[in-house]
């Protein structure tokens, strides 16, 4: 089974892949101690470990249902968390908030890949697809509305930096393309059900209509140049 997280930027560090492969091939105690040490150095490592664990334990089989909602909650906490300072590599002269926003976007790209991989296939249940679509809509909305930088409890939230990095990395298609791909796997009845059933106080269609309005107002390229979220389900945004 391929790991759910891509090896991001490791090609810029000669020899590190060899080290990682050697650790993975060694006795588990060495890798375990390495992971425990990483946990003490960077709290984001915990999220990565949980993602991999979820991937192993929640892979849909025999129509089992998977709930992806915790990823949206994790993203919200990451963006709203007050950062008070963190270790930066000596040879990295970028602003520390530029670095943390890039780390968040790298994490988001991995999460979207996990949702995509767990939502495709003939054996994926309706509930899993619905959870995937709702979670991706929440993620897109969080990116749109999380623009409030400023000091919070002695630290600084990174919403503005994340939005700027989101545009720099042309990250809009990450979410939009996966939503589109999942919707193409739905039957006509499943589409009707998703448009009709409420998720909280609104339906999935209404969430997508809201996203179209937010996407236009934030100019983040969330749905590409011409796409709209609501049209993916066969509807049109209410203006």
Structure description:
With 239 residues, the protein is mainly alpha-helical. The protein folds into two domains: 1-41, no CATH class; 43-232, no CATH class. The protein is 61% helix and 4% strand. The protein is built from eleven helices and four strands; from the N terminus they run ααααααββαααββαα. A two-stranded antiparallel sheet has the order 1-2. Strand 3 and strand 4 (202-203) form a beta hairpin. Helix 5 (96-118) packs across helix 7, helix 6 (126-145) packs antiparallel against helix 8 and helix 6 runs parallel beside helix 10 (204-218).
Succession of helices and strands: HHHHHHEEHHHEEHH
Count helical runs: 11
Biggest sheet, strands in spatial order? 1-2
What is the domain tally? 2
**Residue-averaged pLDDT, rounded?**
75
> Percent of residues in helical segments?
55-70%
Task: Provide the gyration radius in Å.
Answer: 19 Å
Classify the beta-strand content into a percent band: under 5%
What is the SS-derived class?
Answer: mainly alpha
Low-pLDDT ranges: 1-12
| First-residue to last-residue Cα separation | 45 Å
Q: How many β-strand stretches? A: 4
Overall geometric form: globular
Main sheet summary: 2 strands, antiparallel
Quaternary organisation of the protein chains: single chain
């Amino acid at each position: 089974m391929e790991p759910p997280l891509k090896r991001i930027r490791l090609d810029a560090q000669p020899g590190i892949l060899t080290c990682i492969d050697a650790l993975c091939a060694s006795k588990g105690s060495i890798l375990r101690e390495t992971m425990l040490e990483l946990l003490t150095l960077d709290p984001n490592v915990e999220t990565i470990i949980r993602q991999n664990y979820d991937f192993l334990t929640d892979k849909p089989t025999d129509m089992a249902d998977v709930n992806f909602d915790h990823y949206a909650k994790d993203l919200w906490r990451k963006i709203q968390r007050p950062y008070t300072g963190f270790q930066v590599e000596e040879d990295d002269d970028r602003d520390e908030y530029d670095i943390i926003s890039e780390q968040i976007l790298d994490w988001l790209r991995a999460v979207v890949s996990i949702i995509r991989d767990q939502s495709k296939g003939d054996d994926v249940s309706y509930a899993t697809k619905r959870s995937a679509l709702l979670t991706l809509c929440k993620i897109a909305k969080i990116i749109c509305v999380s623009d409030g930088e400023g000091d919070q409890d002695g630290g600084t939230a990174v919403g503005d930096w994340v939005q700027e990095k989101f545009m720099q990395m042309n990250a809009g298609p990450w979410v939009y393309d996966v939503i589109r791909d999942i919707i193409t796997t739905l039957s006509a009845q499943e589409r009707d059900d998703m448009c009709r059933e409420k998720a909280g106080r609104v339906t999935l269609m209404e969430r997508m209509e809201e996203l179209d309005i937010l996407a236009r107002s934030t100019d983040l390229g969330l749905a590409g140049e011409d796409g709209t979220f609501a049209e993916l389900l066969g509807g049109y945004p209410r203006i």
